[in-house]
Amino acid sequence: MNSTENRSILARISPTQWIALAVTIVAIVFVAENRSKVSIEFLLITIRSPMWLILLTMFAVGWVTGVLTMRRRFK
């Protein structure tokens, strides 16, 4: 029998995977605690949506803006 076969499943999880698991759990708790609906007014439009969805949308808009304005580095 190989020594890697004897290790438990928890020992095979890398530190990066543990961090990803922790971030996922925090995100799930965040969504669960921010389910209340809020109203957002933009110009003449009023949007009523759960707070987590609005924050996720704003994060995505910021990320896309950053990607589109990022300068490419040439070597």
Textual characterization of the structure:
The protein has 3 helices and 2 strands; from the N terminus they run ααββα. The chain is an alpha+beta fold and 75 residues long. The protein has one domain. The protein has a two-stranded antiparallel ribbon. The longest helix has 19 residues, at 15-33. The mean pLDDT is 82.
- How many strand units? 2
Order of helices and strands: HHEEH
- Percent of sequence in beta strands: 15-25%
Apparent shape: flat
User: Structural class given helices, strands, pairing?
Assistant: alpha+beta
Count of DSSP H/I helices: 3
Tell me the helix content: 55-70%
Rg over CA atoms, rounded to whole Å, is: 20 Å
Output mean pLDDT.
Answer: 82
Domain module tally? 1
What spatial order of strands do you see in the largest sheet? 1-2
**Biggest sheet descriptor:** 2 strands, antiparallel
Q: Stretches where pLDDT falls below 50 for ≥5 residues?
A: none
Alpha-carbon distance between the two ends:
49 Å
